[in-house]
């Protein structure tokens, strides 16, 4: 990634959160997110982002803190797409936790290959260079866990919801990686996870 414009230099103003400024920031972010969804994170930079948004890197520095801030927001926007797709799939499932997890998994399994690849790249950056990109890894759990917690039975204590949601998230992450290697392995693992979830839901 290009570090030449990693952070906003002195003299650049910041979008102060006015309605007009916020609308412009969202517009720029949407265009850049679409570019990353199509072309991935390789060679991501402010200048590439500016070309995708039809503006200049100086304009981006008015609305974002720099390359890493922009990257974090782009990845968050892509994860929101993933969460939205999963929620849409779950909306048509039955009320059991296992059925919700199955529907979410099917959404993840069938999502666009490029979306999965980009989000895998983001996690790879977090592992390869945690000093710079740890927020990309932490952000994943912060975005995904609340949705999985909501899948849990409403009468469960909050701690139990969090524990089970964390187990499900960790397992699904592993199965997504397994899809790149062996579909049958991932499918078998998901079935075992669903049985574990059914047992957990049946427990007092």
From TrEMBL:
DNA-binding region, residue range(s): 45-64
Domain HTH tetR-type: 22-82
Keywords for the protein's UniProt record, in alphabetical order: DNA-binding
Top-level lineage group: Bacteria
InterPro entries xref list: Homeodomain-like_sf, HTH_TetR
Keyword DNA-binding attributed: yes
GO molecular function: DNA binding
Name assigned to this protein: TetR/AcrR family transcriptional regulator
Lineage start: Bacteria, Bacillati, Actinomycetota, Actinomycetes, Pseudonocardiales
């Amino acid at each position: 990634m290009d570090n030449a414009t990693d952070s906003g230099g002195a003299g650049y103003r910041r979008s102060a959160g006015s309605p007009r400024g916020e609308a412009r920031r969202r517009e720029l972010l949407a265009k850049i997110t679409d570019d990353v969804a199509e072309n991935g994170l390789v060679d991501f930079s402010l200048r590439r982002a500016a070309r995708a948004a039809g503006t200049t890197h100086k304009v981006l520095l008015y609305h974002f803190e720099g390359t890493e801030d922009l990257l974090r927001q782009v990845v968050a926007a892509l994860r929101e797409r993933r969460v939205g797709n999963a929620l849409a799939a779950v909306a048509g499932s039955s009320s059991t936790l296992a059925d919700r997890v199955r529907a979410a998994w099917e959404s993840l399994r069938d999502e666009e290959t490029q979306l999965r690849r980009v989000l895998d790249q983001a996690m790879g950056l977090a592992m390869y260079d945690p000093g710079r990109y740890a927020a990309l890894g932490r952000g994943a759990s912060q975005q995904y866990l609340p949705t999985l917690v909501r899948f849990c039975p409403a009468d469960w204590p909050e701690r139990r919801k969090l524990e089970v949601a964390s187990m499900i998230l960790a397992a699904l992450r592993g199965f997504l990686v397994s899809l790149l290697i062996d579909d049958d392995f991932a499918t078998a693992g998901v079935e075992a996870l669903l049985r574990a979830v059914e047992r957990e839901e049946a427990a007092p």
